[in-house]
Automatic annotation (TrEMBL):
This is (2,3-dihydroxybenzoyl)adenylate synthase. Residues 175-194 are annotated as: Disordered. The lineage of its organism: Bacteria, Bacillati, Actinomycetota, Actinomycetes, Kitasatosporales. Keywords: ATP-binding, Ligase, Nucleotide-binding. It comes from Streptomyces pacificus. Gene3D superfamilies: 3.30.300.30, 3.40.50.980, Luciferase, Domain 3 (2.30.38.10). Residues 461-536 form the AMP-binding enzyme C-terminal domain. PROSITE patterns: AMP_BINDING. Residues 32-410 form the AMP-dependent synthetase/ligase domain. The keyword Nucleotide-binding applies. The keyword Nucleotide-binding applies. GO terms for molecular function: acid-thiol ligase activity; ATP binding.
Amino acid sequence: MTDTQHTWSAAESARYRAAGHWQGVTFGARLRQGATEHGGRVALVDGDRRWTYAELDSEADLVAQGLRGLGIGRGDRVVVQLPNCAEFVLVWFALQRIGAVPVHAMPAHRRREIGHLVRVSGAVACVVPDRHARFDYRELMRSVRAEHGPGRSPRTVIVVGDPGQESGFVPFDELRSAPPSTADAPPVPASDDGGADPSDVALLLLSGGTTGLPKLIPRTHDDYAYNARACAEVCVLDTETVYLAVLPIGFNFAFACPGVLGTLMAGGTVVVAPDPSPQTAFALIEREGVTLTSLTPPLVTHWMDEAASGSWDLGSLAVVQVGGARLPEEHARKLGPALGVTVQQVFGMAEGLINLTRLNDPEDLVCATQGRPLSPDDEILVVDADGRPVPDGTPGELLTRGPYTLRGYYRAEEHNRTAFTPDGHYRTGDVVRRLPTGHLVVVGRIKDQINRGGEKIAAVEVEEQLLTHPAITAAALVGVEDERWGERTVAFVVCSGPAPGAREVAAHLKERGLAGYKTPDEVVEVPGLPLTAVGKVDKAALAQQLLRS
């Protein structure tokens, strides 16, 4: 699958190749290279299960053959909605091996979000667990298929675990023992990547979503490999690196900043944590000699509290990255001493641009900024409301373009017209201050988006769903500063008759198929919503009203 409408110019592509950013190697071929260079080294650990690089490469071949037996091939999109487990990595590389395109979905997504991803991507298949965190994903898939109907729903659902009796549901383990291909499904080609080109779209990530449901972000083999490799270089990864995947693997931060991909490209070991609790993570750090991990701010205080118990040996852990939301400076200053680690702040986006503090940065920069751009070819503009550059130290909107920042969302022509400047800079919607060192300090957002502990919530989407409740006539979702989550969500509602409580609202939104993390933390009834001078809901006034109460 190649999206040529929104891509880098020929001159830019040539420049990025000449600079060595783009290396012209597909992910399927990279895995084969890893097996050649690091064959006997441990690549992946999930509980008691371990794969060397050679075994991971061989397993990807087996799963790829099974996928081809299901009629999946080059350019086909496959929604992958798995929790942290080895199967995510196995199926991801198997898809790369046949030139298919994984669409990263989060475990918390439900019918509304998954249905949207299926529609926009045109996915031919989905990969899900049977159950996870007391939720039955097979039932989710049944409802998605019923909603879309024959011909428009995924023809195949691959289930890690028990698929049940549903037609078209295939157990993942069956892929690993697939019979030889038939004439309808020719053998896996010797090219290691199903004939994919390095400039092809290799995967589709999800935007934070500021206008409702998430947009799809096309990332190519060339640009995404550079993203992971450059992050690995900044973090000084090598064959002795042991990376603990605590955050959801499908999350860009945990997958390629440097995450799973960067670690594997450096010849290190990826350890999968089945849940983000400090007890689970600390046990794995002790057992596997973990050297690097990534957290979001809400996890930081829990990890510091658990470390204070003195019950764990965390001596191997050298670096803890924190990203997904802004880390309060006071927590940044406490985290390093609490865990005995170097703290690295990471501010980035699935659309591309990644900023990181460097491991040798002074403490003040590490604790009070969100890092500086990854690449020497990241082009950064900080502009005022009229698009004019502002001096360093002055807040403005962050615009960017570069060798790993997208030039257009997938199948979103109308949105692309406003999301990018005429010369190809991506409008991030983030308000930042740039220091003379190049480090950025995140001040806020222009977009109406709430960042609750790294989970991006589009206010308009939740507001629309709140209005489907029979008692609610008007609604506004507001993010309010919160010590634990960074921001918590408060729904201000105008009602006809008795106002629903938070539990009733949560039950209603769950019935509507909304992901649980989008449910408001608090519901406040108001007689009316205040308006600005131009007739828009004044959310700043609502937030102030909450502070005064």
